[in-house]
UniProtKB/TrEMBL annotation:
Entry protein name: Formimidoylglutamase
Species per Swiss-Prot/TrEMBL record: Pedobacter punctiformis
Gene3D superfamilies the record matches: Ureohydrolase domain
Superkingdom of origin: Bacteria
SUPFAM superfamilies noted in UniProt: Arginase/deacetylase
The UniProt record lists the keyword Ribosomal protein: no
Keywords, in A-Z order: Hydrolase, Metal-binding
Keyword Transferase: no
A Pfam family of this chain: Arginase
InterPro entries reported in the protein's UniProt record: Ureohydrolase (IPR006035), Ureohydrolase_dom_sf (IPR023696)
CDD domains according to UniProt: Formimidoylglutamase
Family the entry assigns: Belongs to the arginase family.
Amino acid sequence: MSLTDFFSPLNPDQFTPKQGFLTSQLGLKTEIYTGKFPDLEENTYDMAIIGVLDGRSAVNNEGCALAPDYFREKFYKLNEGAFSSKIVDLGNIKHGATLADTYVAVKMVVSELIKNNIIPIIIGGGQDLTYAQYLGYENLEQKVDLVIIDNQFDIDDDNHEGIATRSDCYLNKIFLHQPNYLFNFSNIGYQTYFVNQESLSVMDKLYFDVHRLGEFAQDITLTEPIIRNANMISFDMGAIRSADAAANANATPNGFDGEEACRIARYAGMNDKLTSIGFYEFNPAYDNNGQTAFLLAQMVWYFVDGFYARKKDFPLTPKSQFIIYRTSLKDGSGEMTFVKSKKSDRWWMQVPYPSGQSKNERYHLVPCRYEDYQIAVNGDMPDLWWRTYQKLS
């Protein structure tokens, strides 16, 4: 089956030069599917915009299926930055006869694009589509690090007859999926009053990394090492405070502000490991002044800007580009090794594989902060090191 079968082309009267785009605007810089389906196998594109017209499982947010074209209306009016973008817009994935049909379409599209070294930028639709995004990695023979930006954990009771899953419980599907290719899950920005203590206990037992909104109140840069560890990211627009992103029926007063959301998106773009990203739950029905559509457009713009600012400094490149630091634990139990990039000043920790767990590698590299190194210098083991080691066991 060709990918063409999954997509509806965009209206040529709405997304073509006839709209009067300036030569500097993304509307003229992007290859947009309005007639002939683009050739994806010629190494022509770096990123692909994908609209998904399915919000039937978005809890209390009916109308988010209309998001993609409202996003495009704002995005294509933005000027290209200090980069030469190679973006293709594949149009919209058709609303499947069942939700499962939509999931299959998203899965196959994501998988095929990643194989062609093209990053899918998914504009949903409900956040349950994250599950379909995750399924796209099933046949890629790799472990997946998943980062979710959300104000809660979507692991509610998934007992709803006739529905494949819902936006408030899709994580159950990911955690329980077989074969299991999820290595790590991280949540950024949960708000404690939206999360029950049992869920927090589950995250702790699984050694997953979950971070309260308040952790980033004074310093949004603390999100960068978490994001740098992701292969795929799902961003719920409900994680942004309602004053900046009202177009979500579940919007709440607290959350990230618009500038912070854009910085998070840029960190995502800069992540050399990242191979797909989805932005979900934007609902045009609540966007009276178009502010949320503008913010989402700017977030994707920052993602693109971050992509073209990638440092390509993951510590597998020549050792001359890095500084190695070694510290000893004060209880004498061992040594810890840290790696710092000379290009970006970013840090990683080396976490050794337990004996017999990996035939090809001696250690796993996990992004970290300078503060983790300082903890080790003082002779203590960073919590991130311990949780990673447990996941490797």
